[in-house]
Amino acid sequence: MSNRKLNVFLPIMMAVVLALGMFLGHKMPGSNTGSNTIFFAKANRGPLQEVLDLIKMKYVDTINTDDLQQEAIEGMLLHLDPHSVYIPPSQLQQVNEDLEGNFEGIGVEFNITADTVNVVAVISGGPSETAGLQTGDKILKVGDSTVAGNGITTEKIRKLLRGPKDSEVTTTLLRNGKQITAKIKRGIIPIYSVDASYMIAPAIGYIKISKFSATTYDEFMAAMRKLQRAGMQKLIIDVRQNPGGFMDAATRILDELLDEPKLLVYTKGKDFPKAEFKTKRPGMFEKGALAILTDEGSASASEIVAGAIQDWDRGTIIGRRTFGKGLVQEQYDLDNGGALRLTVARYYIPSNRSIQKPYGNGHAAYDDDISERFTHGELVNKDSIRITDTVPYKTASGRRVYGGGGITPDIFVPFDTSRFSTTLMAIYTRNTFSNFAYQYFTSHKEEFKQYKDAQDFTNKFQTTPAIYNDFKTFAKTDSIPGLDRISAKDEAEIKSRIKALMARQLYRTEGFYETINTTDPVVKKALETLEKEK
Fold first, then answer.
1. Which residue intervals define the domain PDZ in the entry (predicted)?
2. What is the CATH number of the domain that holds 183?
3. φ, ψ for residue 473, nearest 5 deg
C-alpha cells in the first residue's frame, strides 16, 4: 500500500520542486527580466561595483574592465588629498623595491642610446662583476631575446634582467668589437639611500641622503662611524631633493642627533589616535655643530628631520623652503595585485607645527606650487616666501620659526636661475652630459687608472680645453643650440658637470657629490657657517 502511494505522489512532488526551482531562479539576481527580487536580497555591492558588473556582463562591446576600475579609483582619489594614490599592479613591485632598499637582479646600471643598451656601471661585488661584465659593454641579447636595434625600452630591459635570486640569465655582449657570452647568477642588489659620506673639510663630515628607505638608518650609522674615525666634529646632512619615505628611518636618525628626552614628531588623524615619537637612547652625535641642507624638493621624512632639528635649536637649516608634505600614508594591498596608499593622519613636529601646505584648490594647483614659487620669485628672494604661519612659535633661544607650507630655512641660499640658459637647458634635457661622460670614459679608461679614490680625482682631474672641445663636438650631434656663443658662466658650469659625471663613472654617487660639492653654493654656505661655530 505504501509503495503504491509513493508511486502516485512521487511524480507530483518532482513537478512541484521543478516548478518552485524555476520560479526561484526567475527571481534571483542575474535574471534578465528586470523584476524585483522577492525571496533573496541582493548583496550590498554599491553602485560603483554594480555599474562595473553590468558593463562586464551586458555592454555591447568587449571592454577591459581593469582599465575602467583604475580610472574610477583615480577619479575618486581626485577628491581626496594629493598624496592618497592608487598603485597599479604593474608598478607596485618597483615602488616597494625602492623603499625596501633592494631588488633581485644582475647588478648593473645601463642606459639606452641609439637603440643600444650600454653598461654604464657594474655594482661592486654584485653578480655581474662576478660574471666579468665591464663598464662599456653593450648588451645584444638577454636569453633568446635580442635587445639591440629593435626599439628596446628601459622597462623592457629591466624586466629581462631582473628575476628571482639564484636564477641564471645568459647575456650576449659586445666588447671591443667582439661578441662574448656571460652567464649571470642573479642576486639581491642593494638600492642605497646614502649617496655619499666623506670628510668635506677638516673636522667636518658630509652625508647625502637621497630617500628614507628600510635600510637608510643602517647606512647612516655606517657613514657616521666612518666619519667619526676620520675625526669628524661637525656635520652637514644634505636632504635636498629627498622626497621622504619611512618616518621610522627619520626618527631613528634624529635619535642619534638629539639628546633625551625630546619629542621628535607626533601623528594624529580622525580615526588614527595620536602617537608620539621621542628620543629613546643616547645618540652618536648629540653635541657637534650641525647643518641640514634643504630645498623645494625636500619632503615628508626630510621635513621631519629638518623641523625637529630647527625646533630644538640643534642645528642650522640652510637652503630654501621645503616642499610642505605633512601627511601620513598607509599602504593597503588590493586583490588585483595593486595597492592603495591612503592618507590616514597628519604629522606634527615638536612646535605643534603641521608643515603640510594647503591643497584645497585641487590637485593641479598643488602640483603647480613649485613652479608658482619660481614665478613669484621665492626661489631667488627670501622676502618673497609666502609663509602660512599656522602656529606662532619661538625656540628656546628666541628664534622665530614658521610652519604651514614647509620648513623655512634659517639661512636662505637662492637658486641660480642663470644656470637655465637655452643652451644648458638643451644639454640637460637631451642627456648630453651623461652620454658624453660615458663615451669619453669608455674610450679613455687607461687614463683614469691614475686616480686612487674620489678625493684624489677631485683634487687632480681638470676638464681640459681639449675635453671641453670634445664635448662641444659631441653636443653638436644632439643639435644643441648656441654652442658657438657659450657664456663664461655656462662654460664653467659645463666643465664642472663633466668633471662630476666622470667622477660618477669611476666612483658612482660618492664621486659625483664629492666633486660637484666643490662648486655648490649651498654647501659653501654650510661650510662657512659651521667653520664659525665652536
1. 92-162
2. 2.30.42.10
3. -65, -45
Q: Which helix (H) or strand (E) holds 220?
A: helix 216-229
Measured CA distances, 104 to 41, 51, 155, 173, 475 (Å): 49, 40, 15, 21, 36
Residue 81 lies in a domain: no
Q: Is residue 21 part of a domain?
A: no
Q: Please identify every stretch of the chain with a pLDDT value under 50, giving residue numbers as ranges.
A: 1-2, 6, 17, 22-41
CA dihedral 432, 435, 439, 441 (to 10 degrees): 100
Residue 10: its pLDDT value, please? Answer: 53
Contacts of 281 (CB under 8 A, 6+ apart): 255, 260
Which residues form the domain of 467? Answer: 419-525
Q: In this predicted structure, what is the pLDDT of residue 43? A: 54
Asked if residue 429 belongs to a domain, the reply is yes
221 and 357 in a single domain? The answer is yes
Q: Examine the fold and report which residue of 154, 172, 190 is the final residue of a domain before the chain moves on.
A: 190
Question: Which of 223-231's residues contact partners 24+ apart within 8 Å by CB, and which partners?
Answer: 223/194, 223/197, 224/256, 224/284, 224/285, 225/284, 226/197, 227/197, 227/198, 227/199, 228/284, 228/285, 230/199, 230/205, 231/199, 231/202, 231/203
Number of domains in the chain: 3
Q: What pLDDT, on the 0 to 100 scale, is given for residue 122?
A: 93
> Amino acid identity of 119?
V
Nine cell digits for residue 307: 623641523
Output the pLDDT for position 445: 93
Instruction: Choose one of 175, 190, 205: the last residue of a domain.
Output: 190
pLDDT of residue 376: 86
Residue 7 has a pLDDT of 54
Cα torsion 524, 526, 527, 533 to 10°: value is 150
Task: Check residue 29 and give its pLDDT.
Answer: 44
CA-wise closest residue to 86 among 432, 405, 329, 361? 329
pLDDT digits (tens, 9 = 90+) for 185-241: 999 999 999 999 999 999 999 999 999 999 999 999 999 999 999 999 999 999 999
